[in-house]
Amino acid sequence: MAHFCEPCYLDPTADWRQPFETRVAGLEPFADRPALQFDRTFFYPEGGGQLGDAGTVRFGAEERTVVDTQIDDNGTLYHILNEAAPADWLGQTLSAQVNAEHRRDMMRAHSGQHLLSAAFHHTAGLETKSARLGKRTISIDLEAPDVNEKSIAAAVEQANRWVLANHPIRVHNPDPDQLAAMPLRRPPKVTGNIRVLEIDSVDFTPCGGTHCSATGEIGAIHVVAKEKIKKLVRIHFHCGLRTLAHLDQREAILTAASNHLQCAVPELADQVQRLQQESRALRQELGKARTEAARYEAEQLHQTQPAREGETTFIRVESADIDSARKLADLLTARPDVVAMVKTKVADDGFCRIVVARGSQAEFDAGAWFRGEGKSLGARGGGRPQKAEGKIPETVAVDNLAK
Ligand SMILES: [Zn+2]
């Protein structure tokens, strides 16, 4: 059965910040969570892209926390509790209070959505298809295949100028004639009892949410990401204290990076680019040096184990790392009679790497070795008959392999 609850949260003239008295009209749970129904409430139920209110309820010495507010399809409003209320609360008048911190955050974020949507409309003629507001992220979806950085910057600047101008925000409940005369940015999604939000000198839109009383309360609006979704562009942004928290976090990261790289923050990008170039050049140098070293080592090994007519020569050797091991295996097996087994030093995961390869005349199957002897020794990996590689326990000595 639906409970009617007077939605005081829709009355912009009533003060939602004060504790209010209300009668408990029901104790029906919401999705197996304990909840209360009231005769009247200032708790806003989740809807219109805005999260439900939290707060507290008190009866005598007993107190419960309202963790969320929801409304079902029948219009029954649920004040969801951290812990079930005693059955004798039914019919009693208790004191309730909305969590102001959470509500202000929601109002700032939601009013910020209005303002940023109005700014994209004003500066680029773009319509907002929908909006989402969560505990961590705020976003609007613009009807456009893409929006360039310049357009985003222009809209953000416009929105922040409106914040600084502190335009009053008003709620209207117009009759059909008044509604027809209002310059609505978009048509209402519902019919009858249309509620219209006016941002003075900026925007008229139908909306049933909760809002700040002036744009100055929204605080700085800051776009953090753009995401293309089918034919829409999702703009993620912060406002108010969320902007401050985001910028504080960025500041801490930049400070840490500038300390690590021993340069000032404005020089960070150049410094990182320099280090990348330097590291690329060093990797190339290292690659050349390793090839040189492997070539020298392969020559030495070939000399100590010369080819013998009609025989396969096994060369078992250790190498510093996988790059060197691959190079050495290639160079060793350039001689047709050689089977090379090159094991590296132990890596971070506690295993050594091993490269097994054969020359063009050698009778050996490198891939099959992993399935046979390798497997019995705890090696994992595989490949072709000519060349295979994988991991092998550190305790396995390369000198005893394939004997
Ligand atoms: Zn709204």
TrEMBL record:
GO terms for molecular function: alanine-tRNA ligase activity; aminoacyl-tRNA deacylase activity; ATP binding; metal ion binding; nucleic acid binding. It is found in: Cytoplasm. Residues 375-403 are annotated as: Disordered. Residues 265-299 form a coiled coil. GO terms for cellular component: cytoplasm. Pfam families: tRNA_SAD. It comes from the Bacteria. This is Alanyl-transfer RNA synthetases family profile domain-containing protein. The lineage of its organism: Bacteria, Pseudomonadati, Acidobacteriota, Holophagae, Acanthopleuribacterales.
